Amino acid sequence: MTNDQFRALEDISGHRSPSNSKAGSSKADDLLAAAISAFAGITRPGRQDMQQLEDLAMPLLQCASTRGKRHAANALAQLEDVPRRLILALADQPVEISAPILLRSPLLRPSDLIEIIGRNGLAHARAVARRQSGDVLLQGVLRSFADPVIDRTLALQENLANMEAEPLEKPVVPDLSTATTPLMKEGSSERLARALQQPFYETGAATGAQHLIDTALLIDSQF
Known about the structure:
mainly alpha; 2 domains; 12 helices; disordered C terminus
């Protein structure tokens, strides 16, 4: 952490009056974004790099605005080399901030998610339900809410997982070399040609698992 960053941090984390609170939040947002951006640019961050980010970011989270925290969560959600303490702190934020962390962070173990749900309740549980996890204990905690949104999300994930696991049936190809009758009747070739010229409306009908889950949750405005 540079001397300028230390001075700025002391500036915004001291006793502030309501009149300069907004300015302090804006400065905290800028510092937090700059620190995360610089950290994300390091190809292989070492222990010292992660400690510096933690030392700077943890106090800034107390001063940053909702928008600044949301930006931090989005930026850190998919990184593997991030201070766990920082990830856990963001995961305990309101769900409008923590959702990217709850959905995507590879640092959160099932035991972490169970503790986060225990501290924060239904809103966080709904976000965690969208995360693909086969952990039996976590699934049990989610189902214990008996919440329609969670149950529907888990059911969709289970059905889609089963569909992906099913092997494709090998099509039966007839042996045309032994055919004794014409394959097409007279005029069939013309009808086939006209049929092939019709628009194929089914293109793109297959939908990804995540898109189906998103659609189901968007229908329910509670989430």
